[in-house]
Amino acid sequence: MVNRDELKLQARKHLIEKKKIKNQWLKNKVVCVIFSLAIIIGATSLVLIFTFSNKPVYHESFYNYGGLLIRNFSARDGMAVVTIDRNIPVIIDISSGREIKRFERRRVHYFDVLLKPDGLVHVSRRGRYAGRIESALLDIETGNEIIPFGEWDRFLSVSNGMAIVEERRDLLSVIDLETGNELVPLEHASDIRFTSDTMVEVRPHRDNVSNEEWNRGVVNVIDLTTGEKLPPIPLADFGYGAAIVQSYDGLAVVELLDGSVALIDLETGHILISFDEFCKIRYFSHGMAVVGATRKPD
User: Fold this and answer.
1) Which site among 1, 71, 234, 293 is 20 to 30 Å from 279 CA-CA?
2) Which pLDDT value is given to residue 164?
3) What are the tens digits of pLDDT across the range 242-260?
4) Where are the strands (E) in 30-181, listed by range?
């Protein structure tokens, strides 16, 4: 026969276990509620951050900090680089003032932001504590580094998927932006400029030419598709001291040592304006040329 005291003890133990189960259930429910609230708050915060961070910002006035607005102003393809909020450069849409990209000054100082063709921007920056200047070429829309910081010192010009770059002073090259390959090997030059989609004009450095060649403004023209100099025939075939002194859009002015000039087709070497026709060929474009003629005596 079961003792009454034992029955009471068992009943008490059962009640305690039941309370423990109930308390654990309440604890689990509270945890679930707190976790659900945390998820809701987190999701709401992300939505708010995403919404406000993607809300268009418009600018109607710009900060002219010590004249930096004028120095850093750059405009191209309906966009402009302006200075706001004490020398923070931003790219805006000119027609609406909408901010497209901002360059925040966090541990770095952006002092050169220049728009380039093909939706690119040339950015130069200096670290807050380090004195080194580094440059990069960025895609405006994505922010991706087409050419990363530190690879080249400067980007002088961009055209048709290529860029003229500088490594230290007067060491110039032309590179393919997609591959990074050098189309014109790095060389000591005074200047390189694009004259067509497939040609560049290279002016040798002052130290690498004679005084006479420097004063005449002698240049070399390079075909970027082959890396070869143009025209395909030796310049000496045109006459004594023949040299290219000006080029543009596949044409070039060849000057002889006696000062006579002619206009040639760089791809073929054919003479378009002969040496004895005009004393000067000043400018040429779109099938026309501005020339100087020697006045005939009365």
Assistant:
1) 234
2) 95
3) 999 999 999 999 999 999 9
4) 74-76, 79-84, 88-93, 99-102, 108-116, 120-127, 133-139, 145-147, 154-159, 162-166, 171-176
Whole-angstrom Cα distance, residue 123 to residue 7? 86
CA 51/CA 75 separation, integer angstroms = 29
pLDDT at 149: 87
Three-class secondary structure of residue 275 per DSSP:
coil
CA–CA separation, 131 vs 271, rounded Å? 52
Higher-pLDDT residue of 174 and 6 is: 174
* Whole-prediction pTM: 0.70
From the list 281, 275, 278, the residue with the least C-alpha distance to 296 is: 278
Q: Which residues contact 83 (CB under 8 A, 6 or more apart)?
A: 62, 63, 64, 65, 68, 69, 72, 89, 90
Higher pLDDT, 26 or 57: 26
Q: DSSP state, 295?
A: P
In terms of C-beta distances under 8 Å and separation of at least 24 residues, what long-range contacts does 85-90 make, across chains too?
87/63, 89/113, 90/59
Residue with tokens 């020398």: 87
**If pLDDT is split at 50, 70 and 90, which confidence band does 78 have?**
confident
* DSSP per-residue string spanning 226-259: T--EESSS-GGGG-TT-EEEEEETTEEEEE-TTS
Among residues 177, 173, 145, 158, which one has the least CA distance to residue 74? 158
Cα angle 174, 178, 180; round to 5? 45
272 touches 264 (CB < 8 A): yes
> What residue type is 67 in one-letter code?
G
Mean pLDDT over residues 50-60, rounded? 55
Distance CA 258, CA 261 (A): 9
Mean pLDDT of the chain: 81
